[in-house]
Every structure is written in C-alpha cells, then in structure tokens.
Write a structure and sequence with these properties.
This protein is an alpha/beta fold and about 700 residues long. About 45% of the residues lie in helices and about 10% in strands. The structure holds ligand L2IWW6SD. This is Peroxisomal bifunctional enzyme.
Length: about 700
C-alpha cells in the first residue's frame, strides 16, 4: 500500500509500504493511484513527494506477481499519469531505486537521492526490459550511450554516478522532506524530450548489438533491450512505448524470463538452508569469525586467503614448502590489492601473515585446509590441526569431493568439521558448497554458511557424498562426452553443441582449462586407471572410456602444457585450436577397439550430456544430499557456468517436461545398458507418475515420499 500525509506547509508525502523492499505490488500501485489523486484534489497541496518506508525507495515491480494474473492498476499508465500532473512531483530516494522503482522516479518531475542510495534498471537480469517506460525515458534524460550500457547490463550504481549524468540531485542527510519550488514543468516531463544521440548513432547501435549478442550466449533480453533503445533513438515517444510493450510481451512469454526469475529466487532460497537432522538457518547460531588460517598456498589456497582478507578477517596463511611460500607471499598481496581495487575498496580490510609453521594457527577461530587433493595428506593435516588448535576451533576442508567424515574422524571434535568447497579462482567465483558430514554440528554449518555470505558467495549446504553435488553431477556429463568421442564425435563438435546451449565453454575446453590431470588423479585413486589396471573399456562392472587417461599419458594435460583436447600457443596459452593429433589419436583408438565412427546429431550430444547430468541431480535429491532443486540449480548457475537463462539443470528438466526426460533417458539407457548413469532415477519416475508437478513443488513431494518411504 501507500500512505498519505501532509507535511507542515503545502507538501503532500506519499510513502510506499511493502516490506522488505517496497516492491510495486498491486496494492502499492493502487495506493499510489489513490494518494496522487488525493494530493491533486487538495487545493492546499502545491507539490508532492514520493518516498519509501524504512529507508528504501523501491525494489521495482513485485517479481512474485509475475507468475500470476495481472491485478491492480498497470504500471505504465500510472507512471504516465504522474508525469502528466500539473503539481510538481519529486521522488525522494533512499536505499534502493531499482527497476520499476527507478522507472517510477523517472516519471516524477524531480529526483533527489541520498548519497548512499543504489539505483539501476536490472530487469535484463530477470529476462525483461525496463518496460514501464524506462527504456524510453532514461535515454531521453542521460543520452543513448549511457542508457545502452545501463539497460543492457542491468548494472547498479550509487547516486553520485547518476548525479554526474544529471539524473538526480544528491543529499547526504536523511531524506525526510523535500520541497520543490513552482517552476514550469514542461521541461521536466522526460517523455516530451528528444533523445540525445551521438553523431554516429547507427554505428553505435550496430556495435552494441554485436557485442550484446556475443555476451548474451542466447539470452533474449539483452538483445530486446538494444531494440527498445533503437526505438527510443529513432521514434517519437508514443511509438517507442509501443515497441517497448511488444518487446516486453515477447520476453514475458518466453521461458527465459521464467527461468531467470526462478534463478533470482533460488539464490535466496539456498540461504534458508535446512539439514535432514532438522537444523536450519533459523534455529542454528553462527559464530562470527575474525581470525582464520588457510593451510596450503596453491592456486585455491591463495584465492581463499584473498577472499577472507577482503571481508576484514585476519588470515594466517601457511605453506610448508619454502619455494611455494615465497611465491605466495609475493603474489597474494598483489591479488588482494587488485581485487580490492576492482571492488572499489580503498584499502584491503584484512591483514595477512605468512608462515611455514603449522603451529602458527593455534590462535585462530577457523582453519581452511587447501592442500593437494590427496586423502592421506589431508588426514595428516587434520591430525596435526586437532593437536595444535585451541579446543573449539572450526576445521574446514576445501576438498572438491573427498569424504568429510573421514577427516572429522581423526579430530577431537568431529562436530566442528565441515567442507568449504570453493571454486577457482576462489576470490572471484560466487559459489561455495558447504559440506556437512553426519557428525557436523549445526553451529559449524551455520558458521561456514555465514562466512560464505560475508565473502559475497552464494553458499549452498550439501551432503557428504563423493563429489558432493556439483562434481557428482559433472561425472556422468564428462563420461557421456567421452563416450561420444568413442562413437564418432570430435571434441569441437561436442563443445559447439554445449556452447550453443549457452555454456561459456564446452566440456573439453573446460577440462583443458582446469587441467586434465585433476580427473586423472581422482580416477587413479578410485582404482579405475594406473599401473596394473587392464586397459579395457569395461571397468568395475560398467562402461569406461580410457580416452582421457591416454591423453594424459601422452603428456597432454590441457592449457598448462599447451596441449590437451585442443592445442594452444604454448603452455598457458588460452586460445583453443583443433589439433590434428587428436583426430589421428581418436581414429587409432577406435580402430584398436573395433569401434566404427558414426555421425552423431547435435540433439543426441545435448541430450546425452545434459540428461545424464540431470538424472544424477534427481539421484542427489533422492539421497537427500541437496535439500531441494533450487540448491542444485544455484550450484550449477554459480559454479559450473550453466546458462542462467535456462534456470539450472533441474528447472530445465521441468521446462523440457519430466515425461520427455524420462522417455529419452530410457531410450539412451536401452542403447547403452552398461551405463548406469543413464538409468532413470526412481525420483524422476515417481514425479512423472504423479503428473510432473512444477519444480517449486518437488521439495514438498520429496519430503512426503520420504516419510512414506517411497524413495
Ligand atoms: C510489468 C512491468 C514490467 C517491467 C517493468 C519493471 C520491472 C521490474 O521492476 S522487475 C524488478 C526489478 N528489480 C530488481 O531486479 C531488484 C531485485 N532485488 C534485489 O536486487 C535485492 O533484493 C535488493 C537489492 C532490492 C535488496 O537486496 P538484499 O537487501 O540483499 O535483500 P534480498 O535480496 O535478500 O531481498 C529481501 C527479500 O525481498 C525480496 N525481493 C527483493 N526484491 C523484490 C522484488 N522486486 N519483488 C519481490 N520480492 C523482492 C527477496 O526475494 C527477499 O525475499 P525473502 O526474504 O522472502 O527471501
């Protein structure tokens, strides 16, 4: 709703009220319409100020309402009516003015903002465009060039940025009342102004369109934003608004907008974690960490040190190898400075001390072990930590898939052990998997989750199983990609299909980037390859492709060696080029194993890679290793490059149709009965049997089925 009050004198104050961010729900829109009418009718009122309750102007249209029928007064005529009134209307902006909130402010005649306010048009991140007149008013106010950047990226800025664009005035006091004097409003109605364009407007629009298409990887909204701005630059306001409306309708009806809005909410749902034990975010107290240690200063350890220091935590960075320590003590401060600069922090808040002595962690409250991915080494470190740390210290491991419970078992307080699985580079990547073992205490999980949040991560609580959630699902995906090579595909063919779907990198380019030896080592530890293991295509009772092992045996470990599935311009090179060696190698391999190459359609490549991964997602939900589909989807969007406009693997399954996924998995499993990952999961079958409920209902269904022991 919106409340009305008269300030002393002649100013009417309209306050938007819809906690927590005063989103423009039907009730708020109705409130605005009613209160503006009231102000117009009151002869004593000469000007109107619109503000938001609790120090927040407005977080935009109410995203929750997008899923239902349109109720209440629509935004576009409401804003237009405000712009048209003959008493001056000012938007007094504190906190946030985002999306429809900023569009409302653009319909007002004046805008004044607190110096700490945050403004922007993030609709593009929700698969939409600023469809309440924002795509037409903003360029008329700040010019086409600046509007293109803001609207196609959805970037948010503080008020000093917008005041430099003459969008508003800034004040540093709390905004309680604003007086607007009685000048002519003609020039204050943005819809009546021409759109300032640079002389080379066509070339600017063409270049922007090319850039946006490249960047958007198949997302529709950024392209529609450019089209709306083309209309603003070339058409009168009314026709521009028609174009805006048409584009918005197309976007609204696209699956992409639904996927992106789902992704917005899943990012928030995962913060409200719960464990099978009943412990959850709202019944578990977290400790506030001010001093931490990181053990092992390889690539991951260095990134973790920087991520911690950026939050203001003092870090003891320990590395027992002198050469590695010397290198890290040079590199890490530079990384910290760079990242602090990127985040516009004047000085990095945390203090880092380097040491080669494990004893130096004795005073910290939390330790993150980030040594080489080797269980015996990690066990050794944990045994040592439990003897040198103060009782009550939280011990965390950055393992990407090893058993947290085994690590906990060698410590004096297994309840204080959790996994904190970061993704490289750890100070940049948004995802953190917080892994709870059967003995991890709610306090340890809550502390790791909160620490992740402080570091700006999307933290997801996951159960302890090989590979946890992300890497466990990656395994069948990689496996299918290798099988496709055996059957006749090339790395480029597979990668092109996945990149066309929207991944920033196909599976083979990604593997080259991460280093092919990572998986090789894991397979050796699992006894799948290595000395003494027979080179067959069936291992441990199931189909196995020795292809990636043989590529490693040839000394091709990916980008770092300049060769892998592709060739690069020397070690560390980044541009992947197809390599004749790989084609010859694949032909020889197929001949050796009596395989006849066939032509494989892009649909089969996509289905086998994605549906194998999705099927494992269902198995994970069934095993209660993730609390709900949103957890899996957030992990894939934030950690594995799953295109956000496809929502995440589980959301995508729902969009494709669960019946269709089941039918295609059955088909592929029938053709490849020796691949257990293609056997449809029981949960998928159960969901199809009850009529394929929407993804938002799965959590409830799973919990019910578990109670009745159907899963
Ligand atoms: C029909 C017209 C079509 C087009 C024109 C207009 C379109 C739009 O305006 S689309 C919406 C544009 N606005 C946004 O994209 C802003 C989204 N919100 C945010 O970025 C952030 O929430 C925030 C910066 C406003 C606040 O951040 P923070 O303080 O970190 O809190 P949370 O993100 O955890 O949010 C708290 C709480 O509020 C819910 N919420 C936030 N924004 C909206 C919204 N616009 N509509 C509905 N709900 C919103 C959010 O989900 C959280 O809810 P829970 O506590 O239940 O999780």
């Amino acid at each position: 709703m919106a409340t009305y009050s008269r300030l002393p004198g002649s100013v009417a104050l309209i306050t938007l009220q819809n906690p927590p961010v005063n989103a423009l729900s039907a009730a708020v829109r109705q409130g605005i319409v009613d209160t503006v009418q009231r102000a117009l009718k009151d002869p004593k009122v000469t000007s109107v100020v619109i503000c938001g309750q609790n120090g927040k102007f407005c977080g935009g249209a109410d995203i929750r309402e997008f899923a239902g029928p349109m109720l209440g007064p629509p935004l576009v005529p409401m804003i237009h009516a405000i712009e048209a009134v003959d008493k001056p209307v000012a938007a007094a902006i504190e906190g946030v003015a985002l999306g429809g909130g900023l569009e409302l402010a653009l319909g007002c005649h004046y805008r004044i903002a607190h110096s700490k306010a945050l403004l922007g048009l993030p609709e593009v991140t929700l698969g939409l465009l600023p469809g309440a007149g924002g795509s037409q008013r903003l360029p008329r106010l700040i010019g086409l060039t600046a509007a293109l950047d803001l609207i196609t990226t959805g970037r948010q800025h503080d008020s000093s940025f917008f005041s430099s664009l003459h969008l508003l005035c800034v004040c540093s006091q709390s905004i309680s009342s604003v007086c607007v004097s009685g000048q002519s409003l003609d020039s204050r109605r943005l819809s009546t102004l021409p759109c300032p364009c640079p002389p080379d407007v066509d070339s600017l629009l063409d270049k922007t369109m090319v850039k946006v298409r490249q960047r958007s990887r198949g997302a529709l909204a950024p392209v529609a934003c450019v089209q709306a701005l083309m209309a603003a630059a070339s058409l009168p306001y009314t026709q521009g608004m028609e174009k805006e409306r048409d584009l918005l309708t197309t976007l609204f009806n696209s699956g992409q907008a639904r996927a992106l809005q789902y992704a917005f909410f899943s990012q928030r749902v995962v913060g409200k974690w719960s464990l099978p034990s009943g412990a959850s975010w709202d019944n578990s107290a977290a400790r506030t960490i001010s001093k931490a240690a990181v053990i092992g200063l390889g690539t991951m350890g260095r990134g973790i040190v920087v991520a911690l220091a950026l939050t203001g935590i003092s870090v003891v960075a320990v590395e027992t190898q002198e050469k590695q320590l010397a290198e890290a003590s040079q590199v890490v401060p530079a990384m910290l400075q760079r990242e602090a600069g990127r985040r516009s922090l004047a000085t990095p808040p945390g203090v880092i001390s380097f040491s080669s002595n494990l004893q130096d962690v004795c005073e910290v409250e939390l330790v993150i072990e980030a040594v080489f991915e080797d269980m015996s080494l990690k066990l050794q470190v944990f045994r040592h930590l439990t003897s040198v740390c103060r009782p009550g210290t939280l011990l965390c491991s950055n393992t990407s898939g090893l058993d947290i419970d085994r690590l906990a078992a060698v410590t004096q307080s297994p309840g204080l052990v959790v996994g904190m699985h970061f993704f490289a580079p750890a100070h940049v990547m948004k995802l953190l998997e917080v892994v709870y073992g059967p003995r991890s205490s709610p306090e340890a999980v809550a502390t790791a989750m909160q620490l992740g949040k402080r570091m700006g991560k999307v933290s997801v609580a996951v159960g302890n199983c090989p590979g946890f959630v992300g890497n466990r699902m990656l395994k069948p995906y990689l496996e299918q990609a290798n099988f496709l090579l055996e059957e006749g595909a090339t790395p480029q063919q597979v990668d092109e299909v996945l990149e066309e779907f929207g991944f920033p990198m196909g599976v083979f380019r990604m593997s080259d980037l991460s280093g092919l030896d990572v998986g090789w080592r894991i397979r050796k530890e699992a006894g799948l390859t290595g000395p003494g293991v027979e080179s067959t295509r069936t291992r441990q009772g199931r189909r196995y492709s020795p292809l990636p092992d043989q590529v490693c045996e040839a000394g091709r470990l990916g980008q770092k060696t300049g060769r892998g599935w592709y060739q690069y311009d020397g070690p560390g090179g980044r541009v992947a080029r197809s390599d004749h060696w790989v084609n010859i190698f694949l032909e020889a391999y197929r001949a050796e194993h009596g395989l006849v190459a066939r032509s494989i359609a892009p649909e089969e490549i996509l289905e086998r890679c994605l549906y194998a991964l999705i099927n494992e997602g269902f198995n994970i939900l069934q095993d209660a290793m993730a609390a709900g589909p949103e957890d899996i989807d957030a992990i894939y969007v934030f950690g594995y490059g799953w295109p956000r406009h496809h929502g995440g693997p589980m959301f995508h399954a729902g969009q494709v149709g669960l019946g269709r996924i089941l039918e295609r998995l059955q088909h592929h499993h029938h053709n490849h009965p020796d691949v257990p990952h293609l056997k449809p999961s029981t949960l998928l079958r159960r969901l199809v049997a009850v009529g394929s409920p929407p993804v938002q209902k799965w959590r409830e269904f799973i919990n019910k089925e578990r109670v009745h022991s159907q899963l």
